[in-house]
Automatic annotation (TrEMBL):
One of its GO terms (biological process) is proteolysis. It comes from Gemmobacter aquaticus. Broad specificity carboxypetidase that releases amino acids sequentially from the C-terminus, including neutral, aromatic, polar and basic residues. GO terms for molecular function: metal ion binding; metallocarboxypeptidase activity. The keyword Nucleotide-binding does not apply. The keyword Cell membrane does not apply. It catalyses: Release of a C-terminal amino acid with broad specificity, except for -Pro. SUPFAM superfamilies: Metalloproteases ('zincins'), catalytic domain. Its EC number is 3.4.17.19. Its cofactor is Zn(2+). Pfam families: Peptidase_M32. Binds 1 zinc ion per subunit. This is Metal-dependent carboxypeptidase. Zn(2+) binds at H254, H258, E284.
Amino acid sequence: MSAYDELMAFQRETEALAQISGRLGWDQETVMPRGAAEQRGEEMAAIEGVLHARRTDPRIADWLAAAEPADEAAAAQLRLIRRAHARATKVPASLAQALARLTSTAQGVWAEARAAEKVADFLPTLAEVIALKREEAAALAQGGDLYDSLMDDYEPGATAETIGAMFDRMRPRLVRLREAVLAAAAPSRLAHHFGEPAQLRFARDLATAFGYDFTRGRLDLAVHPFSSGSGNDVRITTRVVETDPFNCFYSTIHEVGHACYELGIDQDYLLTPVGQGVSMGVHESQSRIYENQLGRSPAFTGWMYRQMLDRFGDFGVTGPDEFARIVNRVQPGFIRTEADEVHYNLHIMMRFDLERALIRGDLAVADLEAAWNDRFHADFGVAVDSPANGLLQDVHWSCGLFGYFPTYTLGNVYAGCLHQALRAQVPELDAQLARGDTSAATGWLREKVQRHGGLYEPRAVIAQACGFEPTEAPLLDYLDEKFAALYGL
């Protein structure tokens, strides 16, 4: 075997073990008994120890030095392995295991605190997580910016400076659009009961309509919806609120976007570094374009309205135009995952500033709730009414996912670019969506983005798909045009 072949054989075993670790995480969030939390933490730490040892194996450096890539895909494999190896060797094994153990148990602590509406029950554990993440960041940054070193794990090449500058450019237009929309007449609200079994049946049908392959996945319930896995086992979750079916339906479509990215990657890359999404920003571009530009388009919501009439009977909406306005209702709500497209990125900007301050040591954990509530009131004009609607709403910090939040807005920006290119190349898109047919759109995304996996760098895969370098302008133009039409601005 050549050095490249030996390296890839070793890497496939590592990737397989990482998938097993991911399956343990899925189990923990869906069906694991509550009493198993402490044991699961030990299990996660044990497998992380094995993975860290493999990722830092000294033979990897030797193989990388000797390996000769035969083609573009092999060169990409070596690039990703080299990056991961360099990163892993900077982090002590004891720290990697401690983080895996703590973040596993911290998720349970967060869930209990959220249910009890007691921030104080979560803050000591959060402080431990942040201390370990700052230790990890220091090891990775080696004198550089701590937050940048963490963000690089989710969006290679991005920095807080460039993301912050993009946010500064976006904020004025978002605020102007919000003020204009909120000054217009608001659409009515749903006032109907939508039973859980019927919601879940429609959620499955929506997943199928967007191309989700149930022979290689499944749909379950979780406190915080997520997608898990890659290759040929990619699972999604949703949640149900019986007075708000859109919570379930659009969470499902969102997670299907993530799942279809992983399921759409070329099978030749299975269980290799290239065989998974290239970054969380690109990943989020798929979930957001599925959910918003496709799923919330007036064309698709017209089909969805007819489906809901068949399934739920008369639910008090006069027609597809009113339904589209209700689906796209703009309101300053508390919950990020339920936020409309106008407000969503303002949620992300707030979290970005808070978590960067936490990692840099500019904000103490003890002051976090007050800082959250003050910032939320300043940005949204509403006082936080409960911890579950405030600091405790997101699972990310309990998982140690610092540097993850900005990729949500970056994903929106990428989705805006992809949507502009998609409409130029699929002129009959609205007619197809009006029939509930997403195949042309999802097929275009699979061909242009998904099948490549990690073959190209994040910005490169978007630029290649669109034919231009990604910027925030297409997203902001799309939002202005869409909500001007819906609200008669």
